[in-house]
Amino acid sequence: MSFLSKVISGCCPNCEQEKMFKTNGNPFILKMPVMNKSCSKCGYVYERETGFFFGAMYISYGLTCAEMIAVFVLGLLFNISFMNMFIIILFIAFALSTINYKLARIIWLNIFYKKM
Predict the structure, then answer these.
(1) Taken in order 112, 62, 6, 105, is the CA torsion positive or negative?
(2) Residue 37 carries which DSSP code?
(3) pLDDT tens per residue, range 75-104
(4) CA distance 86 to 10
(5) CB-side neighbour CA atoms (13 Å) of 54
(6) I need a surface site. Which of 9, 21, 91, 104 has the fewest CB within 10 A?
(7) 98, 25 in Cβ contact below 8 A?
């Protein structure tokens, strides 16, 4: 599988059979996604060492910035006031926070994946 298809599927990078996250989470009820410790099919451990996913914060930051810039550009194209744009940007950043969290961890893990 290609890198992009592995990231989109969100499955174990080793066997590609089990989802990496137990739950999806929901920002509106303040529930973060819960990640499995390892794959139950092949035993691949997701967090290789303590602090392994700190780098995923940079990816999450980049995703959030890209989303905010996209909303800002769309706001300019549709002639929305800056205050309304600011409110929309805050809402979008909050609504997509759990998706960014999951996606950043999946991308980070696939960047440093080594076949067992």
Answers:
(1) positive
(2) S
(3) 999 999 999 999 999 999 999 999 999 999
(4) 31
(5) 4
(6) 91
(7) yes
Six-digit token pair at 30? 């303040």
Residue 104 included in any domain: yes
Helices 56-77 and 82-95: angle between axes, nearest 10 degrees: 150
Is 20 part of any domain? yes
Q: Residue 88: which of 71, 67, 63 has the closest Cα?
A: 71
Give CA–CA dist 106/36, Å, rounded.
Answer: 12
Amino acid 82 reads F
Tokens 């035993």 belong to residue: 43
Q: Is residue 87 part of a domain?
A: yes
Cα–Cα distance measured from residue 60 to residue 103, given in angstroms and rounded to the nearest whole number? 8
Query: Which domain does 10 fall in, by range?
Result: 3-111
Q: What token pair was written down for 49?
A: 């060492």
pLDDT, tens digit (0-9, with 9 covering 90-100), for 40-52? 998 889 988 889 9
Structurally, how many domains does the chain consist of? 1
Instruction: Name, in order, each residue with C-beta under 8 angstroms of 84's C-beta and a sequence gap of 6 or more.
Output: 75
